[in-house]
Amino acid sequence: MIEAHLLDQIPLFSGTTPKDLERVAWLTLEVECEKGNFLFREGDKADYLYILLSGLVQLTARGPEGQQTVIEILYPGDSFILAAVITHKRFLMSAEVVKKARVLKIPADELIELIRHGGDFGLNMMSTLSAQFRTMVRQVKNQRLRTTAQRVAAFLLDLAYDQGRGENRITLPHSKKLLAALLGMSQEGLSRTFTALKEQGVEIDHNQVHIESIIKLRRFCGFSNKLDATDRINPKD
After folding, report:
1. Can you give the pLDDT at residue 132?
2. Whose CA is closest to 137, among 234, 222, 221, 228?
3. Distance of CA 150 to the CA centre of its chain
4. Of 142, 167, 193, which residue constitutes the final position of a domain?
């Protein structure tokens, strides 16, 4: 059991009645997980919805020969994996803690009961699923329509808008090893790409990035802050 006010601060539960919040809170567990722990593994039954309160979690998948790829990095406030939970399917990815985390575990049956009640919670659920679907579409577009250098450039521009509404100086949020895995390349490949991007005015110093011209880099990779920027940003232009 947790305090209901913890749920009230999470966008997914915005507008949920106090009575429903109390019922969900009664069945929700808060757990602390160390780096390297798995919350669930690919193929496990989706019996709980997970919500990250602090720390970082990576969603990964493995190929037929055991190779692993990072699908997504999750941040505080993110819920996962909603689609599997509400359809009683198995998880298609594993969730591994990469920075000590506090996580809420909410029983799937309780969430489905809330959906049956209707109201704001059902709309919030649809909004969350929509955002996750849009993220997946962006990933597919990046993989199929951009070169490696263009994908990395688009990632840096997304960070620029996220951290400072298009500022020229940004901070890489993760180690280069984790960034490389997220972008689907080796560390060596990422380093070579950073070197190649110097021609586009990008300078990397440890975890600090300076972009000489946001406009030039946008033209290089065809970046649109309306279409490519994450939904956390909500760009006005």
Report:
1. 83
2. 228
3. 20
4. 142
Same structural domain, 83 and 46: yes
Q: Band of the pLDDT at 165, cuts 50, 70, 90?
A: low
Number of domains comprising the chain:
2
**Residue 236 within any structural domain of the chain:** no
15 vs 206: CA distance, rounded Å? 43
Same domain, 135 and 18: yes
pTM for this structure?
Answer: 0.79
Give the CA dihedral 220, 223, 229, 235, nearest 10 degrees.
Answer: 120
Judgement on whether residues 171 and 95 belong to the same structural domain of the protein: no
pLDDT at res. 227: 78
Amino acid residing at 234: N
- pLDDT tens digits, residue range 38-56? 999 999 999 999 999 999 9
Which of 142, 169, 201 is the C-terminal boundary of a domain? 142
237 domain-assigned: no
Task: Give per-residue pLDDT as tens, 191-226.
Answer: 999 999 999 999 999 899 999 999 999 999 999 877
Contact 205, 136 (CB under 8 A): no
